[in-house]
Design goal:
By secondary structure, this protein is an alpha+beta fold. It has one domain: Protein Transport Mog1p, Chain A. Helices cover 20% and strands 29% of the residues. It contains four helices and eight strands. Strands 1, 2, 3, 4, 5, 6, 7 and 8 form an eight-stranded antiparallel sheet that branches. The longest helix has 16 residues, at 104-119.
């Protein structure tokens, strides 16, 4: 899906996605912030595109709309989210968001919450949008820091728009990151092995 000029089926349907509830606790009062800030992926660390190079936007504060279809901030504490968007000259885009919580236990709960949202995203899309067929796939966990999991999501609308996305959640200590890659296509077009490498790199760069 293009981050620059194309409104994909996933983006168009974002307003219809349902957010799951959360039992996460608020940040610990007076928790000391960790020195520095988590490092983000660079353009060269995204899955290689066969015909176009990646461009990386600046690191910005806030939660990105590009991640909002399956994962949002509703029902979670108001942490300081930071994100970076990436795009190619064609129809492929990506985004990474990171957040530093108050404790490792809060980060563990937040990572599980986000993974649960991704895991159930296909069902929630179909429930809220009868013109869309959605399928999710689990590509397993990665042994990096406190762990990461990679999932896939394919959507197809009744008017023929088809999109594929890969999403991952990973954690290092108090810090959680979510990475999303997407473009037009289906599961056959998903660079799963390369995205797993990107996810491992993203989690390893957190601190």
């Amino acid at each position: 899906m293009s981050m620059r000029s194309r409104t994909s089926a996933l983006t168009a349907l974002a307003v219809a996605a349902l957010a799951a509830g959360s039992v996460l606790t608020a940040p610990t009062a007076g928790a000391a912030p960790r020195a520095g800030a988590p490092a983000f992926l660079s353009a060269s660390q995204l899955p290689p595109h066969p015909t176009s190079s990646w461009t990386a936007g600046p690191v910005a504060h806030g939660f990105p709309d590009a991640l909002g279809l399956c994962v949002g901030t509703e029902g979670v504490p108001a942490y300081d989210y930071r994100h970076r968007q990436f795009w190619t000259d064609l129809d492929t885009g990506a985004v990474q968001v990171t957040v530093v919580t108050g404790t490792a236990a809060q980060a563990k709960a937040l990572a599980k919450h986000y993974d649960d949202l991704i895991r159930t995203c296909a069902d929630r899309i179909e429930e809220s949008s009868p013109d869309v067929e959605a399928e999710g796939r689990d590509y397993g966990t990665l042994p990096v820091e406190e762990g990461a999991r990679v999932r896939g999501l394919h959507t197809e609308t009744s008017w023929g728009a088809t999109d594929i996305a890969l999403l991952s959640v990973g954690r290092d200590g108090r810090t959680v990151t979510v990475v999303k890659w997407g473009q037009m296509g289906d599961f056959h077009d998903a660079p799963v092995a390369a995205f797993k490498k990107t996810t491992s790199t993203a989690v390893a760069k957190l601190y």
